[in-house]
Amino acid sequence: MKQEKDSNFRSASFILGAALARNDMEVLLDAPGAYCSLNGLYLTADRQHIDNLISIDHAQPNCTSRLNYKGILDGRSRAVFGGEVVVRRDAQKSDAEQTDKNLILSTQAEVDSKPSLLIYADDVKCSHGATAGHIDADTLFYLRSRGLDLDAASRMLVHAFASEIIDTVKPEPLREYLDIIFTAAIPDKSLPIGRTR
After folding, report:
1. pTM for this one?
2. What are the domain boundaries of the chain?
3. Rg (Cα) of the chain, in Å, rounded?
4. C-alpha span between 63 and 111 (Å, rounded)
């Protein structure tokens, strides 16, 4: 995808149910004022494997990019996230944010995350980060103390994690459809790996 002056590109990627999937996306911000927002959500189970390889190239000044991907992994599934943001020497005043967050529901699930920034300009605002964790035991305890059983509380927390990406979808019927199919795909026994009370 090549973007021209003051262009605006928004993308939302949703992956569910594939035994093996690979999502490759390259965006070139090739004129001042270009803006892109790339969001993604995937849910894996059993022995599924998903790769997300995203590249954003800030080739011109005054461009903005946002990259936000989330994964939910269960069973013996595996995921790979490779996010690369390049800011070229002449791309002053670039603004780039990159995040990759993963929720691990099984001791056998695995995610390999490699966010990277390659910055060759001096006057930029760039950040990146990656996290992988389990359902928070304290939050789960709080929900259970309000009368929810373990499974319902776990499903509620997984749904809340996914909702940030689903809520970026603008056509309401599509957003509602995605919410339904991702909610249905949340494992019935989303038990936390960490400590419980």
Report:
1. 0.90
2. 2-133
3. 18
4. 30
